[in-house]
Write a structure and sequence with these properties.
The chain has 95 residues and is mainly alpha-helical. The chain has five helices and no strands. It starts with a helix and ends with a helix. The relative contact order is 0.06.
């Protein structure tokens, strides 16, 4: 019987403790303490806080949009790192 509750807990992202007792945080993993990264650049800290807020509070569509934008920017950055210098200059001219 408990294996069924474990499966339900994982499937709907509900804390097993909450499912069994009705106490504590309903969402799985919400009460886990995670050390937040410290950045030397305050702008990066600000971006991290905003990203975390979007991830925790934003709708599925908003989170997907942000992930897409980040992936696209990351891919473009990595692409520039691997391109010959002439192609990077040419990309900047057409942008």
């Amino acid at each position: 019987p408990n294996t069924i509750l474990v499966k339900i807990s994982k499937l709907v992202n509900v804390s097993l403790d909450w499912l069994l007792t009705g106490e504590g945080e309903m969402e799985r993993g919400k009460n886990i303490l995670v050390e937040k990264p410290q950045y030397k650049d305050p702008r990066l800290s600000d971006l991290y806080q905003k990203l975390e807020s979007i991830y925790n509070e934003g709708s599925f569509d908003i989170r997907a949009k942000v992930r897409g934008i980040i992936e696209e920017a990351y891919d473009e950055t990595k692409k520039k790192e691997t391109l010959p210098k002439e192609e990077v200059v040419e990309m900047k001219k057409t942008a």
